[in-house]
Amino acid sequence: MQLEVLQLLSPSLPVGAFSYSEGLEYLVQSEIVNNEKTLFNWIESELIRGQLTIEASSLSYIMKDLDNWRINNDSQSKQIIKEWDSWLSSLRDSSEVRSQQCQMGQSLLQLLSDLDYPLPDNDKKFIWPVAWAWAGISWDIKPIDLIEGFLYSWVANQLSAALRLLSLGPTKAQQMQKKSLSLIKSQSKYLLQQNPKEIWISDIGAIMSQQSHIELYSKLFRS
Length: 223
Description:
Layout: H1 3-9, H2 24-29, H3 36-49, H4 52-72, H5 75-91, H6 95-114, H7 128-138, H8 143-165, H9 170-192, H10 204-212
């Protein structure tokens, strides 16, 4: 794996991912997720049929279109990226997650700009998957590595949230991260070959937990 991928996966990446639980906090307070087994079931189900599978599958397509924009630097190329941005954002049923995607995407694009990798017109108003794909283009990361990193990063953030929500412990979290690796690898290979617009998902529970998070009386994470 390229060292640039490690930088992209670093927990010190200043994009604010640590401040979101993506519905996990609601699931914990509702006692739907209450131990190691139910937590891993949640992570596994999202990796297999969650909305992030469509986003992960879209990355290689977005990378190609971003590369065209970088080369041509024209309005037509940018419009294609805006269509990806709009389509992926519209698939997120929760306004809270859409807001998260916008905030994290803009933060990553700002970071890349500060590192001398701005988008062709230095626009920063794109969501997280588009920003992640631009990092792949900027740092010449292979699509399969970028997809694996995208899924790995999501799992790592969920486990980071779980450490603050459950009596889990860092060793257990590391064991669960290790346990997820084979699924991340197999899903990445599968998603790389799929058309994201033909993928079916079934994560109504995740959507409802994300929408319900804002209604919690007290919470550690941002809605």
